[in-house]
Design brief:
The protein has about 280 residues and is α+β, with helices and mostly antiparallel strands. The protein has nine helices and ten strands.
Length: about 280
């Protein structure tokens, strides 16, 4: 008989503690207070769109996107757009978790369906108080272990399906992002950006829409906001930030900043950065 060699089965994720797992539909004017805690937290947008402040950056998330907050990372979010956002929140600790450089991930429809099922199942298995898990409703180690495995499978599926979705256009998309980041001091049009990337405007928009649910100029503006927030946190003056981002007038920059974040630069700094 031939000897058995076997294959080592390595786990990529191992959840150890579950703190929260719920979904909610928020009002148009919702704004959560900033928080930080010693566990991981994932925000998944099931419908609508939100903006998230995380680690000094601001991200706009639309339906089918999720963001991962590391332990100890300050974060908050607020409603944006014309639709009341439907958001799912998962708080957990893990002994093992994938090391990914991406902060925002894509959810496909089957991921959203599975997440909704898990949220419903959680209320059968666990006891809740104000959306926080306080104990087990079903005293069965098999039920909780099976639930943890399904949640782990969902998170792995998100990462796996996301990597499969990348194609040869991924490099062109990365080229577009790089051109944006290198030209934050300019007010680029789509045609100008396409010229920098040696492609037509139509090709640029097609490639960008395949990887981002945000329009080209909206994304470019969000990068400007991220840079502005980083400079605010470093103590830069409003006039300095405006000049750095290609705005000739400070007032126009302040109007631009408030239109996207909902706050003037000074009010944003007081609310989110002076903590």
């Amino acid at each position: 008989m031939a000897p058995y060699h076997g294959v080592s089965l390595k786990k990529c994720i191992n959840l150890s503690t579950l703190y929260t797992l719920y979904d909610a539909i928020y009002e148009h004017n919702h704004s959560s207070r900033g928080e930080r805690h010693d566990h991981w937290e994932i925000l998944c947008v099931l419908d609508g769109e939100i903006e998230v402040a995380s680690g000094g950056d601001v991200h706009r998330l639309t339906k089918g996107q999720m963001i991962m907050h590391k332990p100890g990372e300050g974060h908050s979010f607020w409603s944006t757009g014309n639709k009341r956002p439907h958001v799912a929140i998962i708080g957990f600790n893990a002994d093992i978790i994938p090391n990914t450089s991406r902060k925002i991930h894509m959810l496909f429809p089957h991921h959203i369906d599975e997440l909704k099922k898990l949220i419903a199942k959680a209320h059968e298995i666990f006891e809740f108080s104000d959306n926080a898990i306080t104990g087990r409703e079903i005293e069965s180690p098999y039920a909780t272990a099976l639930f943890a495995s399904k949640l782990e499978c969902l998170l792995l599926s998100v990462l796996c399906d996301e990597s499969k979705s990348l194609s040869g256009n991924a490099k062109k998309y990365a080229l577009i992002l790089d051109a944006m980041k290198k030209n934050l001091n300019k007010n680029l049009t789509i045609n100008e950006l396409a010229s920098l990337c040696n492609m037509s405007a139509s090709s640029l928009k097609k490639i960008f829409s395949a990887y981002s649910k945000t329009g080209v100029i909206s994304y470019f503006n969000s990068l400007k906001i991220k840079k502005a927030i980083a400079m605010l946190s470093e103590g830069s003056r409003i006039c300095e930030i405006a000049a750095e981002l290609g705005f000739e007038e400070q007032n126009y920059f302040s109007t631009f900043f408030k239109r996207i974040t909902g706050y003037s630069p000074l009010n944003y700094k007081k609310r989110f950065l002076n903590k």
